[in-house]
Specification:
Dna Ligase, domain 1; single chain; D-amino Acid Aminotransferase, Chain A, domain 1; 13 strands; 3 domains; four-stranded parallel beta sheet
Length: 312
């Protein structure tokens, strides 16, 4: 067990080493919660046989070869790679703040939007295409949504694979590539979305913690990117996230989305365009941003959620 853990009464397993890990480690330590990394991918994991406390570390020498999964009280978010995650989940034997069901509910964009729409919440007009689909049916669905529209994978993140199309020919050019990918038998998700494009939309990411609005950022593209015709607001694609105070309508919508999906810690993407405010996506594996971008008391409430989860 790490020295940080020895000074704390709760030990939290986090399966990412991105910015969220370092921020959680720094900000939860004053609340008696030690944050340690558990590596889930690009390594060899013991499934059965051998010494239960002797998982072999990766070739680079990282990890603890003796009992690296021992001593944790709670997990942060279920691993993004579900196959490896099932093994690590068994080895850890702890509850997760956002468990497998929460991750799956949010990762399935169409399923999440259907749940939100059924709850009466505003979402973009969207169609789910399950391949192989008849070309005429796809074109008819696109016509119903209206051009220009957005084609996006149903389960990818960080803006990967999203394309804007303006006419049937450009749509079929994109779907031809999707057909090739989906024809590969090992492809797990053979679906994609056709979604209305909201012009000149303002893009917000709101954080909802335990049903309560925790803060928000506006994701903006630099002027040079806008002048070059860029339109995706993903931070991983060069956008800048600036802290903002959402109005009451935005806060209530974000909280209602988290309630409808039943996810304790949820990033809710909101688009404001031409007088409309809609939920475009949700993320049950949200990045924890800089402290100044959240409301006062956010870290203490986050620590309380971690503790309650550990007590389950």
């Amino acid at each position: 067990m790490s020295s940080a853990a020895s000074d704390s009464d709760i030990r939290l397993a986090v399966t990412t080493r991105a910015e969220t890990f370092e921020r959680l480690r720094e900000r939860l330590a004053p609340h008696g919660i030690a944050v340690d990394h558990v590596r889930t991918d690009e390594r060899v994991l013991r499934v059965a046989g051998g010494d239960a406390n002797a998982d072999v570390a990766d070739v680079a020498g990282e990890g603890d070869p003796t009992g690296e999964f021992d001593g944790f009280d709670v997990g942060w978010v279920y691993p993004s790679r579900l196959m490896e995650g099932a093994v690590v989940d068994t080895r850890l034997g702890v509850p997760w703040v956002n468990g497998r069901d929460a991750v799956l509910a949010s990762r399935n964009k169409a399923g999440a939007l259907a749940t939100l729409a059924d709850a009466g919440l505003p979402v973009p007009e969207t169609r789910l295409v399950s391949n192989p689909a008849d070309e005429a049916a796809v074109l008819a669905a696109a016509e119903a949504v209206g051009y220009p529209l957005v084609v996006k994978p149903n389960s990818a993140t960080r803006g990967v694979g999203i394309a804007r199309v303006t006419d049937p020919d450009s749509l079929l050019g994109v779907t031809d590539y999707l057909d090739l990918v989906h024809d590969y038998r090992a492809t797990g998700d053979k679906s994609y979305l056709l979604q209305e494009f909201l012009p000149e939309a303002t893009d917000y990411r709101a954080m909802v913690l335990d049903g309560e609005y925790g803060g928000a950022v506006e994701r903006r593209l630099p002027d040079a990117a806008l002048s070059a015709g860029r339109w995706k607001h993903n931070v991983h694609r060069g956008a800048v996230a600036e802290g903002v105070n959402l109005d009451d309508d935005g806060r209530r919508l974000a909280e209602a989305a988290a309630e409808a999906l039943g996810v304790p810690l949820l990033g809710v993407d909101l688009l404001a365009s031409d007088g409309r405010l809609v939920v475009s996506e949700t993320n049950a594996r949200p990045t924890v941003d800089a402290a100044e971008k959240y409301r006062e008391g956010f870290d203490a409430d986050l620590a309380a959620l971690v503790r309650r989860t550990a007590d389950r």
